[in-house]
Amino acid sequence: MSVDHNGGANHEPELSDSLRTFGAVLKALRDEAGLTQEEFGPQVRYSAHYNAKIEQGKRFPPKDLVGRAETVLDPIAGRVLGAATRTLTRKAGLASWFRPWAGIEEDAVSLYTYECRAIPGLLQPEPYIRAIFDRRLPPLSEGQIEQQVAARLERQQLLSNRPNTAFSFVIEQALLERRMGGTEVTRSLLDHLLDQGQRRNVEIQVMPLRQEDHAGIDGLMYLAETPHHDWLGYSEGQQSSILITDSKDVSAMLQRYGKLRSHALGREATVRLLEQMRGAL
Question: Which helix (H) or strand (E) holds 105?
Fold first, then answer.
């Protein structure tokens, strides 16, 4: 079975009420303690600008903020912030049609990704993420951009939070050659890919520009192995997505992905190419 999720006119999520609520609670507690953002920031070891974004509901609070704030404020404030944290909608910045797959990702024991449009979201450094959303049409507001950047960075915690999950990525070289966002953004992207590729549970392979035997002509594909060792597939279009559960269809995707991996550069050759591209910038 394939389930189509069409975002329609509401594919860009609004600012999360839970994030705004957390920000308002943090601001009230800070004000009650008689601290300005400039005074509070250094004490919790985050900049005043970063804390302002949290208070405005534009960024997810870091996991250690509550503990640091409790030390600066008092235990009661810590408990209040802890309760507010539990109300957060952590997928608020993700498009509605992507959220079902994001939930599947969180439990997967294997995740395979082939991308031919943009660098996979789990591997995008913040400058690259911003370059993408800055170019989104129709244009996004600053608040929408900040929320979606925060949500994508939060989603990327999967790579470190799930060390026993095997992540495989096949990326078209053309995506790197495009230099989305300019030279500096591309430099940060190449550095980030080299860093993430060092993780034991992450394998990154680049598909060369010239490859006569290419199994990805049907477009991008995402595949996930569940804790029960069933496989699910996922694909995207314009403001829509398809969750693929039929075993025959998923099997075909797995065959194509296996072929893609066999024709892409191996891990060591990919590292050499990324380093070569980094040096040529």
Answer: helix 99-107
Q: Which tens digit of pLDDT belongs to each residue from 35-64?
A: 998 999 889 888 888 888 888 887 778 778
In 3D space, the residue among 165, 167, 169 whose CA is nearest the CA of residue 227 turns out to be 165
**What region does 219 belong to: left with phi over 0, alpha with psi -120 to 50, or beta?**
left
Q: Cβ distance 22 to 88 under 8 Å?
A: yes
Cβ-contact 76, 33 below 8 angstroms: no
CB atoms within 10 A of CB 133: 16
Q: Are 114 and 170 in contact (CB under 8 A)?
A: yes
- The amino acid present at 60, given as its one-letter code, is F
Return the closest-CA partner of residue 207 out of 198, 199, 216. Answer: 216
Closest among 87, 93, 51 to 69, alpha carbons compared: 51
75-86 and 65-72 helices cross at what angle (nearest 10)?
160
Distance separating alpha carbons of residues 214 and 228, to the nearest angstrom? 31
Under 8 Å between Cβ of 18 and 87? yes
For the stretch 213-233, pLDDT in tens is 999 999 999 999 998 899 999
Q: What is the pTM of this model?
A: 0.72
Cβ proximity of 239 and 7 under 8 Å: yes
Torsion, Cα of 173, 251, 224, 271 (10° steps) = -30
Distance, CA of 110 to chain centre: 17
256, 221 contact by CB (below 8 A):
yes
- How many Cβ atoms are within 10 Å of 102's Cβ, its own excluded? 16
